[in-house]
Write a structure and sequence with these properties.
There is one protein chain. With about 190 residues, the chain is mainly α. It is about 55% helix and about 5% strand. Helix 1 (about 5-20) packs across helix 2 (about 30-35) and helix 1 packs across helix 4 (about 75-80). It starts with a helix and ends with a helix. The relative contact order is 0.12.
Length: about 190
């Protein structure tokens, strides 16, 4: 059994979202840039996550995605199932028809082994919450910057730098009268 990139990317994107949502809705473009996941792929995944009531979207300026439930209420199994990731180690998809031979009764010799592994995987992934993964990242020292606050600070710093220059420019250069101005011609008459 192998977890495909669909499940891996969905879990990674959800961790990124959960880490940053305290600063407001998180954009898919931001997740895409930070996690190196295609934006169009994230749009597909988040459409599925939204249908399973795992995330909510906010449109417009300042919009993006937030969690639809608390992080401790979302399990890794919820995320993986939402994006249509099969959690099945059997060759038959759990149907028990591994062999088409009638004398084998359809089951391969290891069918029960893989079925039990499926149960253990689902049990484990159901026990791990998004909050657990977020806390794990925070414990590793992951630093989260609020890019919106950073952008506001940069813009205000630019405004502070340009304001004195504009004021000085206005004071130094008084407006010269226009020679070809109609008002100027009227004054001369």
């Amino acid at each position: 059994m192998r977890l495909t990139t669909k499940g891996r990317f969905a879990v990674t994107a959800m961790i990124d979202l959960a880490l940053r949502e305290a600063h407001g809705p998180v954009t898919l473009a931001g997740i895409s840039q930070r996690q190196k996941i295609s934006l169009s792929y994230l749009e597909q995944l988040f459409g599925k996550l939204r249908r399973f009531n795992i995330v909510e979207s906010t449109r417009g300026p300042g919009g993006g995605y937030t969690l639809a439930r608390k992080a401790h209420e979302i399990s890794v199994a919820d995320i993986i199932v939402a994006v249509d990731e099969p959690l099945d180690a059997t060759q038959c998809g759990g149907k028990g028809n591994c062999h088409s031979d009638e004398d084998q009764h359809g089951h391969c010799m290891t069918h029960d082994l893989w079925s039990n592994l499926n149960l253990k995987m689902v049990e484990y992934l159901s026990s791990v919450t998004l909050l657990n993964l977020v806390q794990q990242q925070e414990g590793r020292g992951v630093v989260i910057q609020d890019m919106r606050q950073k952008k506001i600070k940069v813009e205000s710093a630019k405004a502070e730098k340009t304001a004195p220059a504009l004021a000085a420019k206005k004071e130094v250069a008084p407006k010269a009268p226009l020679i070809n101005s109609v008002f100027n011609l009227a004054r001369q008459s």
